[in-house]
Structures are given as structure tokens and as C-alpha cells.
Structures
1.
Amino acid sequence: MPIAPIIEDTTEPGPRGNYRKTAATRARILDAALDVFGEAGFDKGSLREVAEKAGISQAGLLHHYPNKVALLSAVLERRDERALSGLSSRPNGVEHLAYLVAYARESSLRPGEIDLFAVLSAEATRPDHPANDYMRRRYHWVSGIMRTSFEEAARAGLLREGIDPGEAASQLIALWDGLQIQWLLRVNDVVVADRLEQFIDLQLVRPLREIVQTEPA
Amino acid sequence: MPIAPIIEDTTEPGPRGNYRKTAATRARILDAALDVFGEAGFDKGSLREVAEKAGISQAGLLHHYPNKVALLSAVLERRDERALSGLSSRPNGVEHLAYLVAYARESSLRPGEIDLFAVLSAEATRPDHPANDYMRRRYHWVSGIMRTSFEEAARAGLLREGIDPGEAASQLIALWDGLQIQWLLRVNDVVVADRLEQFIDLQLVRPLREIVQTEPA
């Protein structure tokens, strides 16, 4: 896991400066939380460790995030927002699918993060888990995006006959989750992004790389 | 989760009777362990609860399984042995694939067990987890079986051109793991066995149900 960079605070005083300072502190806390939870797991990672890694006091941390669940939710939401912002800059469904492949490739550089999300995805299936609600909403949201992408591909005449966009979306998410487990276990020499691309290619009339010329990260 | 049946011990005394009695006690303990770990999770489920549910003393339990990890390993191995014994009675690769679909359908009747294995599969990706070694061996073993099944299908002229048996096996396991998460989260109305069958059908020249007339559980 990369060490969270210490963000230098060069903002001037005043409301806007304070706002920026708060944003920078929060970003530092979330980077630290991702590191700590990614290495030790959510159950075992402590707020004390997060505060230490972020270079602030525990009271300071609690001022921003009153408990571990609030902190975890913020980590999850930030990760999703980042992914979404990359997605929204793409013009259409097939470009979205190419983006997901690029995103999978790029996130393989952060194994601790993948580990955290793989374990959390499974643990949070339990109705009493603090992230259960978030994970359920997240699956609906992600599968909605992928479904729309496959629907747009269908309208552009790029989806193979007989492929149902909703099912293709659900299979793609399942593959992603399952391949990450194999990758983390270091079995089958899995390169997650390659496998996702192969699956998407099976749904399309032409390979993704022929339709989308580049695969920008 | 079904309550583990209390097995009545009607065996006569003597070495053979003792052996049978031991086997019956162990079966009762493993049923109880599956229930307890399936409901509470491996971390939170206690040996005390398992002993209580199995109707024996904690000392009696420790006589058979000296610690939680030994107990978990025995639960995992028994489950795999059962699955394997069903598999070995099938004559060839395509029949094996049909069996896996039937197995997925049948195990959906035991959600607690699926929950335990889904969470464990993810948690055990961590190298320091007590089941890490077992899970790695298990993935190699399961993907070997599936790969052989697809290879046999290829030799019988039933695999689509361009499909790599090893990759199809790895994708099938990943799909299975990932779909179980969606099923446990109750999103996307996933019926795991149906989705696995659809995936297998995509790899074959004819649908599984046309090749294997019945799908016995």
C-alpha cells in the first residue's frame, strides 16, 4: 500500500481557506483510513491508527468522522465518486465499458484497496453489517450504470443478438467481484482487467478495442 | 438455517460400534458448526455455541476438534468431499458441468452455508487468515476439475471454437463467487444456478439441457 501523501496546506486564511483546509484534512484522513482498513481489515483497523497515519489527533479525527462506520462510509463514497467522475466524461455506453476495464487495470495498482472492498462486499451481505445498506444501494447503482451502457451499445447495434443488458450487467459485476478474490488469492494468474474485457467482448459484435480505439486510464 | 438433526445412536458396543459412534458425533458437531458459523460468522461464532447445538460438552468437542481452525477445516473438507462424491458419479465433462449447476441450485436451500463460504472466501484471501492455505488449494482443485470438464467437452466437440478451457473454468468460479454475493445482498433477483447455466451455455455449441437431458440434484 502506498503511504498517503502529506498534503501541504498553502491556502490563505478566511472562509474559503478554511473550507479548503477542511477538505485537505478530510482527504488526508480518508487516504489514511483506506491504508489502515486495507491492511488490517475494517474490524481490526483502529481509529487510533488512522489518526496517527493522517498526522492528526484522535479528537481531531472524531471531529470530522464521529465513528468508524461514518469513516468507512466516507471512504466508500469518495471511491465511488472518483470512479463516477471518470465515467461521466465518457460520451456513450461502449466508452463507459472501456472505462470500467481501464479502471480495473488502474486499481490493480492498489491491492490493499481491492482487498478491503472484496472482504467488505462479502461481509456486508449480512443484514446487520454497518455497510449493508450502502452496499445494497451501491450494487443497484453500479448495475444500473452497466445496464445502461449495454443498452446504449444495443441501440448502436453493437450488442450481440440475444444478450440481455440487465443480465450482462449483473454477470459483469459478479465476474469482477469473483475475479478479485482469485487475484487476491494469487491463483489462476488472473489479470482482472483482461478477463473483464474478454467477457465484454463476448457480449459485443466487435471487440471493445476495435470500437474504442484507445483505452485511456 | 435448519437445525442439525439429533442422530440417534443405535450402534452396538465394540470397536466397530465405537467407530460409528465417533463418526456420528463428528457429523453432529460439523452440522452444528455449519449452523453456528453460518449464522454468526466464523469470527463471532463460538465453540461453546457449537457444543451446545451439538448436544455435547465443550471438553467433548475439543476432544474431536482441538480448536476453531481445526473445526472450520473439517467443515470445509466435508462440504468439498460431499460435492466431489456427487461429481465422481458422473461419466464425463458435460455431465460434470450439469452437476455443478444442480449443486448450485440445491445449495441455495442453505443460505447460511452460502453466507459462511462467501464471507470466508473473501476473508481468507489475506495471507495470515487460518483458512488461506485451504482456500488456495481449494481454488486450484476446483478450477482443475472445471478445466478438465471443459477440456472433455472440447474433445467431444461440444465447446465453442476459441474458448479456452482454463479461462472458462476461472470465469465460472468467479461468476459463482460474485453471483452469491448479489444473491445474499438480495439485489438483481439473481438465481445463481440459472446464471451459471447461461454462462456454460455460452461456452458450448448446444445448450447444456439439450446435451444432458435431465438435471438430477
2.
Amino acid sequence: MTDSNTKGSRGERELVNYLYDDGWGVMRSPASGASTLNDLPDVLAGNGWKTIAIEAKVCGDDVLYIPPDEVEQVIDFAGRFGAGAYIGVRFDIEYGDPSYGADYPGWYFFHPEDIYRTDSGTYRIKKETALAEGTPIYEL
Amino acid sequence: MTDSNTKGSRGERELVNYLYDDGWGVMRSPASGASTLNDLPDVLAGNGWKTIAIEAKVCGDDVLYIPPDEVEQVIDFAGRFGAGAYIGVRFDIEYGDPSYGADYPGWYFFHPEDIYRTDSGTYRIKKETALAEGTPIYEL
């Protein structure tokens, strides 16, 4: 497992724990390769009112690029399941940084159709866009 | 992994594949121990109208006993998530046996509150009860 995967996995656990502590029922997908079905989101959560399928990304840069197939698979799964499809991204934001709020993980969420796409179709989320326009975790 | 676990895992894949082919979005829980949250069902499935959390059991005998804590964890998860809680059981039934129908896996489902409990609180499902009163997979 690469450092990048380790970091992503830790970030994803953080997301899962936050949602769980907030009262959601949360399931992470089995590790890639362990599943027979390929189009699984990273996280599936429900709270009795809403069900959300999340492709979760941890980004160490200021811009996140996501290949179209990764977005399509969460859209496909969400359509089957009857869930809302979200891309969740956590940029490197220090806990307690007063600019971003002190006591929640720095995750921001977008519906796929609201994400900018490059000429080649790649999805692109800038850190500044996430902070300005993304849905913070406590508003999911 | 014991033979019993292997059998259970194969049966669970069969269940997942059946639901997927039937149009459901389906997620299996990560292997025990891989999760930080303990109260996960074996399978979580949704089809846009219904969401179901399943504790899945493969049984080689004519009677299945389930400890109360395994049932409680699927009830707890389903309550958080906003899903229906089910115990799913697959007894040894030959495919194509005309007594049970030819072309679907021999899985039957019960809501926990409809399952007989012994004096000690253990849940008990007999094979004959499953066939007579359980919900077959295609009626989920």
C-alpha cells in the first residue's frame, strides 16, 4: 500500500467516524479487489431521511482531478440503490484553523453534476472552490 | 478461514449476485476485523423503493440458531441507516429441486420480530419454517 493509499484510507476512516458519531449508519466498501462488483462507492451512509453514496478523496495538493470512470461508478451505484451521489474531498486543512471552523473534519461534498469538467472530461475541484461552494460535512 | 466460513462467504456472494442481477445496488460489509464499526450487517441493498440490511446465514443443518447479539447489531444498524432489518438464511437446498422452485437461490428472509426465540433468547429458524413462512428472495 502506498503512502497515498494509507493517507486516503485514514482520511476515509475519519469521514466514516464523523458520520457515525453524527448518528448515521455507515458502511465502507470492502477493499478494492475483495469485491465481485466493481461499481461500489467508498462510503454508503443513511440516517433515515437521506441515503448518500460517496466517492471519497483525500488531496494533498490545491487541485483534485478525478477520472470520469470513478465518478460514473458512484453515479451508477447511487442510481441502483436509490441514494444521492456525492464526491467528497478532504484537502489538507489543519484542525482548528479558524478560517475553516474548528471542530469538524475538512471534508466538502459535491454532486457530480456541479463539478467543473476539463475539455477531456476529467472532473476538477480546486481547494478554493471546495471551501467556497462545497457542502460541508455537517450539512449533508 | 474455516470450511464453515468459506461456505458462508460463498453463499453470501451468491446472495449479493442475485440481488445485483435483480437490479439492486448492493454492498457487502468489509471482512470482520477490517471495520472500525462493529454493528454492520453482512449485506446492505437498495433498489430505490426499499433499503434492506441483512444478516446472512448459510446453514447445513435443519435448524439455525442465532445469538441475540448478532440480531441486535443488524437491528441497530438498520435503525440508524433507515433500512429494514432482515435475517436471511440459506439452508442446503439443491438447485432445481422441484419442491422449492427451480431457478433462484434458496434464501429466505425474516424480520427479527417474526423469529421464534428460545427461553434463553436465542433466535431459532427451522428449515421447514423458512420454506413455509419465510419471504423468498424474489419477494424482497
3.
Amino acid sequence: MIKVILLGAGNVATHLVNAFQSSENVQLTQMYNRDKEKLTPFKGRVKTTTHMKNLEVADFYILALKDDIIEEVASKMPKVDGIVAHTSGGKSIEALSRFKAYGVFYPLQSFSKNRWVNFKEIPLCLEANSKENLEKLKFLGKEISGSINEVSSEDRKVLHAAAVFANNFTNHLYQIAEDICKQNGLSFELLKPLIKETAAKISDLSPRDAQTGPALRDDRQTIATHLETLPEEYRDLYKFLTASIQKSHGKEL
Amino acid sequence: MIKVILLGAGNVATHLVNAFQSSENVQLTQMYNRDKEKLTPFKGRVKTTTHMKNLEVADFYILALKDDIIEEVASKMPKVDGIVAHTSGGKSIEALSRFKAYGVFYPLQSFSKNRWVNFKEIPLCLEANSKENLEKLKFLGKEISGSINEVSSEDRKVLHAAAVFANNFTNHLYQIAEDICKQNGLSFELLKPLIKETAAKISDLSPRDAQTGPALRDDRQTIATHLETLPEEYRDLYKFLTASIQKSHGKEL
């Protein structure tokens, strides 16, 4: 049995509990969080503790914590023999360098508390302070995901920045589309099939080849009509993104 | 039997052929296109013609044409008795005002030639020059879609502008994410599950509530790291979208 202790009780931790408990070869030994209340949802499923001194012995200590408290929590941990790894996209592996064996166990996905995701499909980006420890992290990773990737801290930073475009910024555009609908008394439901298909399309087609629309065609009449139609607060962004599409597709304007 | 003639042979026309031919109550009487070659893929499935004078009699004439040729093609049509409707998101219903009975039959989706979509789920936005003709268009629409919506030309313009955010601009962000990966030798495959989940999430959650990330948290350290990490050409857009998220969520910065 691979013994795992989870530190944290947020969205990533919650999804990891489900993933680890679905694996026959993993024993989720314990969960730690300093706030007792946050551990309540896990009672009965995992042993929990709010005290570092009660931390048991395990093969892996996974810190599923917000970026800004990883070092603080790590500094309070005993100097364990198992591998200590955080799940952050943005933090360097060196945040955990006080341990003998350390690494990164970053699931590249956006987790929400009440949405189930198939963990098997989530790319795990792994890094460790030695080849041996990397192999161990891969061994654990394979128990829960079908996509195991060795990614350096430098590359992970890049991925994390790219993920902001693919997730945060994309979601913001959805929100703008919703706002535009609402401000005009139109149902956002009308746009949902389009949003789903836009995302689904990239399985078959590179986004560069999938690009369509007035910006790409340099259809100035439609662009002008849209700018008139849009709420004022979104006009500059429309112009900026239109210019970005045209630049990126080598339109000479 | 409802008799339909399609004018056009592009992506929208192709998907409409499939949709109409799946309905037991619709007879796709004929397809028109001025370019014979473009009709080749439909040979054997539908009667085709390249001459307006050969246009048969039908209940509906659906103009699945690019915006800039709708009026031109319409001007060459005989003054038919059936309802003439275009499928454009951006064109006013008045583009077809030379006919007795006219309207709009706009499927709100992004169509690609080689991707099947379930037409039943595509919102149809309908408009007509009379109540009676609107009812007729609804009657036809229900044969192929489960989402029938009466949308005025004004509202359709708004929806079309919102769709640019939900589709064109979103796809552009995917392309940027792909570029960032490629420029650093990373596989874009790593981001695909994230992209799919970001889109899937809005079924349950308003995009406003689904927003996460360094911009929303005003996590200046992560933002600074991303800006350093990004290819220079995408830094301004990163800043612009970060500011837009913060403005839109009422951060006082």
C-alpha cells in the first residue's frame, strides 16, 4: 500500500481525496488542516488532524494548499522521510527544499467543489529533487491519472501562464457574453451550445485553423456594427482582441 | 410535406441538409449554388441547380449564404410565394424585403465542415415580416431543433456581438495558449482538459461565479511572474484582460 497524507481541505484536496480513495493501491492515511471546521466534510472517510505533531508516517505528504501558505505550512512540518510535494502551478519546487525528498504534484485542471471531474483525464505535472523521487511520484501519479508528465518549475510557470488564457481569461469572455445578453434582456442559454462547441472543436482542429469571425475576415462593416451594439465598457476589449486576432494571423492593416 | 429549397453550399448549408434530411416531414426539394463544383458533395442526395430560372416551387427558400452576397443572390431570385429567409446573425431581416414573405432562420452555432453537431440542441433564432410567417418559420424550425426562439433583428445583432466573445475571441485565447506552449516546447494537449472543463462548468455555474485566478485574487506576485514568463507579444493582452476582470468584479485598484 502506498501511504499518502494530504495537507489542505480546499477544492484540490477534495478532488484528491476522491481520486486517492478510488485507487486500490493507495491508502489515504490522514488529512491535516489547521482549521477543524474545514475538515468536517471528510470526517468518517479519512482520519483527520489539526495538529502537526500528530502527523503520521507516510510515503507521500501532498500539500494541496494556496500558494501563499505553502512555505508557512511546510515550515511547521516535522522533517519527514517521505516525499513532500505541493500541488501548485505557480510555486517553484524549491519552496519545499527544507525536506530531504520533495517535489511537485500539479494537476492541471480547474476544480470546483460541487463538480465531479474524471481525474484519470487530468494531466499531472510532476517534478522532484532527484530522479528516484520523480519515479516515486510517477508511481503515485499513475494510480490516479492516465496523463503523467515531467514538467520543470520553469515550464510549469509557462503552463500556468498559458492556463490563465485557457481558463481565467476565457471564463471572463463568457461572463462578458452573459453580461451583454443580460443588459439586453436576452437569455445566456442561447450562447451555451456555441461555447461548448467552441471548446469541443479543439479536439479535432488547432485553434489557429478553427479561427473564424469578422476580425479574421477583416469584415469592417460587421465590426463597426458590433462596436455600436456593444455596451460601452466592452468596446475597447473588442477592439483590442480584434487587433490581436488580425496581428496574429498576419493581416496587414 | 414541407418543401424546402436551400441556396448556398457552405458549412451552414451542409449542416442544414443533414438536419432537414433527418426530418420525416421535410422534403429538401432542391439546392442552388452558382458554382457547380460546390454542389458536387450533394449530388445524389438532393436535386441541384446552378440556374435561378430552374428554381422549383417550395414553402421555404433558405439562403445559407455569406452576409455580403445575401442581397445580391436575393435580387436574382424570382418573386416567389414561399417564405424567403436568410441564416445570418449579422444581417437585418430587411435584406429580404423585396419578397412578400420573408424572415430570418439563424442557427446560433459555429459550424465546421467535418464536425458533426447535434442540430436538435442548436438555438434557432427566428424572425419574420408577419406573425403568420413567423408561425410558419417556427413550424419548420421545430422539425430540426429543440430550441426555437423569436429574436428581433436588433436583438440578433446583440447576440451576434456576444457570440464573437463566446466563440471568436475565446478561440483566439486558445490559440494564444497553444502558441505559448509551442514557443516553449510544451504540448498543448496538457491544456485541453482544462479548456473542456472551463466550458462545461457554465452549465452549472454562472461565469461570474466561476471566475478564479490571479486577476480576481489580485495576486500581484503571480501576475508579475506570468508577465515575465509570457512571450512579449501577449503581455499587453494579459494586462488588458487582467484589468478587465478586476474592473468587472469591482476591485478597486
4.
Amino acid sequence: MAEPTRHPFDEALELTQAADGLLHGRTTPAYANMVGPFGGVTAATLLRAVEHHPERQGEPLALTVNFVAPVTEGDFAVAVRCVRTNRTNQHWIVEMIQDEVTVATATAVTGRRRDTWSDTEIQAPTAPPIETVPVTGIPEFIAWAKNYEFRFAEGAVPVEGAGEVPGSTTTLWVRDRPARALDYASLAAICDVFYPRVFLRRGRMMAAGTITLTTYFHAEAHQLDAAGDNYLLATARGNKFHDGYFDQSGEIWTPAGELLATTHQLVYFKD
Amino acid sequence: MAEPTRHPFDEALELTQAADGLLHGRTTPAYANMVGPFGGVTAATLLRAVEHHPERQGEPLALTVNFVAPVTEGDFAVAVRCVRTNRTNQHWIVEMIQDEVTVATATAVTGRRRDTWSDTEIQAPTAPPIETVPVTGIPEFIAWAKNYEFRFAEGAVPVEGAGEVPGSTTTLWVRDRPARALDYASLAAICDVFYPRVFLRRGRMMAAGTITLTTYFHAEAHQLDAAGDNYLLATARGNKFHDGYFDQSGEIWTPAGELLATTHQLVYFKD
């Protein structure tokens, strides 16, 4: 009997514990970006490295990933250090290394959740039902984007000749392609599926890349299980664009209106 | 002639390079919180340690501080590592250590800014003129708050018997007390002046503390100079409260409507 085909996301995130104490992995062509891999898969890899750690307790609460140097296609190692275990949470420092050069750093917090008063204060964006929004592409030369189904409700990738627009909000239904049950790693990656907000504002593409990405995970494991392989509603907007940088904030929602993650990043651009 | 009195903020941030390669400092009673020092002053200290580094190039762009363990009153050391120097930016890892225990970690990005297309997409909050909003206190037992003048336009600290409210937005005019010319370190601290949003929603105080704090600096040095020692308009709101945690997002503006920083944090609470 043939082995079941692994999902390309799981292939990209495969890590092997080696005798040097590091986790070893390899970038995959499926998640290639213009230069190196999709930042979302790098973020997911560093989070997965924490999840794999034998001392890890609790679920991911927060992740900050710094894109320090271009990640090149090929082998990498991940060093995970548990900085501190508290009663209810743990703090982590993670580094991705290629040829003895640190190419990405991360800090993460994992922790136990306990039932308390709760409320979601921000509002989910409005979007037409999933099936009424056509699946649209991201430019063909972006390999990683082929691993997602994008249904843009607002703020699709600007086409040739698009003019400037006054707002940088993109709202889309998105899921892994092929469909895959949601977990913290794939949620971390989905937090980075927004193409650079400056493209939308300026109506054209230009050099741009995430410098640092922070995600707060609001989903408990059972909520991820319930989300399954369905679409998620992802929305992001830029806050301030200036001097070659902009920051954006975004949220990831279930179709039922549960907020799974809030995510922020600082991006450089050359206009 | 008597020496000019140093500002308490500068006293709190004093760091001395020692033979062990670490920067040595000491918490000051002026910035004490319920347990250990005000998180904002810890964030400012870690940023200042990066600013002090002889290899540092460019201005602060981003800072993530993780509050790993309670900081105790007394001596601490700060280890600063320049992970990478790129053409236009640098990546840093910073640790605060007390008695060989890491009590805070940070990653920071510094970089050169260059003139590009710019736009501030988010709107400044509306607030009455500074002089029409009375200076109000934070409860007396919070020592650090005495180092700020708070003029709450919206969402002041709930008083005894306050009920629940549906929104967690606080907007205030704030500046150092005594007044002090703004710099990146003091801006980093001001990003953490918001009392826990859950107090406002629930109408009462409870145990709460920041776990991780991320700030994006949008101000160039000349904008900080122009801001001087005037009040800043600070606003923050919670996004989702659940399972003992909430996240908040905020912005710091000049009276003229320039956005100096956007700031996000994840906070634990016990209700």
C-alpha cells in the first residue's frame, strides 16, 4: 500500500533532533518566496520547534519572529532554549541558523489557559459568504501562495495599472491548499499571508519584506479542532507608512466569528 | 555650585559597562510597581542598553520585551548581543539577569530611515485640549505612576464601586513628571503606561501583569526633539479577553497628530 501523501506544510515543518542538540530541517520549494522561504513558514517552523521541546508545557500564547537575514534554500538548524518555566507559563528563545549564521530569531510564550470572564471586544470584519467570493490568485511567480486558497473579499492584490487607494485593508477567506486541519503552526503561518500593504496603497509591487512579526494566539486547542480545515477570515491593515517602513495589524477569525489570533508586523519597503 | 538634579527616569536607566562584558544597573524605588519595577522602565532599560552598544547603527525601529520572571528590587545586569548587521538594519537580543536568573528578554531592531512615500492611515483619537483635562491620579500605592502626569480624556482608572463597561478604551494626555525631553527610551516606557484594560471592563482591580510587549517606533529623532517635554496623547484598547489573558493595542501621538509609536501587549489576569 502506498504511504499517504504528506501535506506540503508538514513536509516544510519537518524537524529532526540531532546529536548536536539542534533541530535540523530543510526549506522546501513549495513554500519559496521571492528570496528564501515564505516568512509564515519560517514563523511556523520556529513555533513548531518550541512545540516539539520535551519540556514544553501549555499552548502557544505569543510568538515574535525577527527576520534577521535572508534564509537561503536548503538546510537549516533550530536552537531552542527554555529561558524560564513559571507556574502557568514558559518563555522561549529560538534561533534559526544556516552555515553558522543566525538568519531568524524568535521569542515565544507558552502557557496554560484557565476559564475566566471573557469577551471579544473588537469586531469581525464583514465579508460575503465564502462560496460567493471567487478563488483568486496571487501572481504566479510566488510559489508559496499556491499552498493557500485565497478568496479576497476586499483589497485583492493590485493588478497592472491599479491606482493608489486611500486604505490598505485586505480581508479574505483563506485556507491551506490542499485543505489541512488547523493547528498552531499553520495559524502562525496564516498570520503572514497578507501581501505587503504598501502594494495596495500604491497600486503596484515593489521590494518589501517583513522585519519582525508578533502574533498573539487566542485559540484554545479545541477551537483549532473545531475550525478544522475550513476557511478562516483574515483581515489586516497598515497603520503608518514612512521612511521605508510600515506596520500592520491583523486578525484571524473563524467563519463563526471566533477570534483565533491577532497579529502585527513591521515591514520595510523601497518605493 | 550644586550638581543639577537628575531626572528619576535617567537615574533608573543608568547602566555601567563592567569588565564581565555586561551592563550593570539597579532598580530605583521611584519606578516600583506592585511587584518589582514598572514594566515600561524595564522595556526602556533594555532599549537603552541597545542604544549604548558601540556597534549600534540607526534608530530603534522595533522592540519586543518578554517579562520572564519577577524583577526584584536591586542590582541587575544586561547582556546585549548584536545578532546581525545588515545594510540598513541591525537585530539584537537582550537579556536582563538577576542572580544568574534571566528575568526579562528582548529582541530589538534598529535601522536607518530614508525618505519615502508616507502616510498615517489610522486616525488619532479625539480628546479635549490638554489644559481642559484635569490631572488625575493613579492609586497612591503605585509608586511609578507618580513619575507621570495623567490627564484621562476617556477610560480613567475605575473607582470603588464602578460597574462593568462595554469598552476598554483609555485615552489620556501623559508626560513625564517632572517634564523631560522625549527620547526613544521614555517613549518605550510611555507605551506601557496603560493600567490593565481588564480593570476598566470589570470595574475593579485584580492581579494582572504584562507577559510580552511589542512596540514599533515611527518617530525619527527630529520628531522626538520637536515633541520635547510636551504631553503626548496615548490611547489603548483591549482586543480579546479570555482564559486568563488579554491583548491590547495602542498608539502614542503628538498633540499635532503625529503618530510616534504603535504598541501591543499580552497580559495575564486573575479574575
